[in-house]
From TrEMBL:
Ranges annotated as spanning the membrane: 13-35, 289-311
Residue ranges occupied by any HAMP domain in the UniProt entry: 314-366
Keyword Cell membrane: yes
Recorded topology in the membrane: Multi-pass membrane protein
Pfam families in alphabetical order: HATPase_c (PF02518), His_kinase (PF06580)
Native organism: Paenibacillus barcinonensis
Protein name: Sensor histidine kinase
InterPro entries, per the entry: Bact_2-comp_sensor_kinase, HAMP_dom, HATPase_C_sf, HATPase_dom, Sig_transdc_His_kin_internal
Amino acid sequence: MVRWLTSSLQRKLSVVVAASMIVPLLALGLFAFLFSSRITEEKTKLSGMDTLKQVEANLRYMLQDAENLSIFLIGERDIQQYLSRNEDHERDRIDILGRMTNLAASKKYIANIAIYPGRFDAALSTATWYEADGASIYNPPAPSGESDKRWTGVYPVRNYAGIQNVITLIRPIRSIHDYRLIGWLAISLDEKVISKGWPALGLGRGEGRLELIGSSGEILSSMDKPRLGQHVSDLEPGLMLRIQKGRSGTAIYGEKKHKRTVLYYPEELTGWTLVGTVPYEQYRSENSYILILTAIAVAMSALISGGLIWFTVRRITRPLLLLTRHLSRIDPKRPLPLFQSVSNDEIGRLGESYNLLGEHIQLLKEEVIRGEARKKEADLRVLQAQINPHFLYNTLSSVHWIALMSNESRIADMVEGLSDFLRISLNNGQDYCPVAQEIAHIRHYVRVQSIRFPDQFVLHYIVDPALEQQMMLKLLLQPLVENAMLHGIQPTGGGGTITIMIQKDARDERMNILVLDDGAGMAADKLGQLRANLIAGAEGSNALRSGGQLQEKSFGSSLSDGGYGLRNVNERLLLHYGADSLLDVHSSEGGGTRISFSIPILEDMP
């Protein structure tokens, strides 16, 4: 590892700079995580205290409303008159009960309003509660003495809907004339209505618990209904010692998995206390989320820093690396790559010397290439001079007329077809010709070959009339037809059919060309070798176009079997039309051969 590190200047610089940046980044991430965790806990406490304040305001509204309603009822004139009598008056009782029922029905949190006369037994109640045996009762826990108002603890009652937990305000009713006790008033609040909206407040993101604890430590209302009526000290010993009566605040209670944050807030009218508990597991889950975010942020920062470090170090060391590669991988067949010098220091001057050397070598190579090109051009001119087209046409024309005069019609026909074939092949030196002329060229070729090989093959032409005047590279079809005749039809020993199809591609502006025969076909291994030779020839053409030298390769029997003609067509297609127009060869032994290619429809002559 150390050897690998010290063997590269780029690696050494990258490690040193990365360590100097990433280590402080990790320390900053750890500090951010600890600070965020502390903020999360404090935020939860503040949010919880706001929730307790909101609950206390709603609770105080209900308690204050019950207090005001009790003051209104004990001072109401009809109630005073009814309770001051020594016996029950049914008509007055029904009238008073009706008004009490309307008051109770107007407030959802009031479960019952009841009046107990002191002089006679005729209690008035807006609700019907039952004993376990089904007998109707009205009384809440019986008042003792003549003390002022008091709130009872929570207790269960049974009505027509089932069990109902209530908290009751009991206060004496005294005569407004002589202040003597004439009865009792009881207003019961429904515990279910009191705690109805607590879960929706989402204390501790829904994981916390909210309870109303009386002055004696009894649980008056809770989100966990089985805890109602029980003493906090019995369920959670020591919790009440951490709650300061008459004050609001927070405390920590429990250990390990049972560790919780306790939030408490006093209710001033009754001395009760609202207590909320938030499990520490919530902090752990939130801290895990913060840890993941922090880790992602640190990782992304480390990656970005690493990328910047790598980019900077690479910018520094890349000139040396490039120069080293240039010097160690010199290819005599290709030009020396240019060294981009962007500085004036020692490395820049060394790069400039390297570039001068490359330019000198390139000039020498170009001189050699130009000499070879001039030599080939001279050889071609000698060959053209040896075959004078006009002399050849005139000679063939003379042979044609001599054959006609001698009644040798087959010789005359063959000579005429050969003359037309050569005239189209030369085409006045033009590389492109119309599709119709290429088809005519094939017809002349077939005319000559049909005399040589009579009744051995039949040609079918399927040409789209709209394409007949479109220009195409000349002499593309004749090698394919020759290949089909000599290597497809003749080996069968009988006759065969060759089909030439030229159609327009419906998807784009191209023409599809197909040469199909029903001859001997090729075995799979021979077909694979032919395809490989075509690919090798195309790669050689690319090398020639890019300035290299295309060397002769031996393709064995494939060339002697027609592979050379196909490779020549394939190379011409690549040079003039690109890689999308290469030959596609399909064949099966005894099933004939199918050769196709596609060329663009040219609007203008190249």
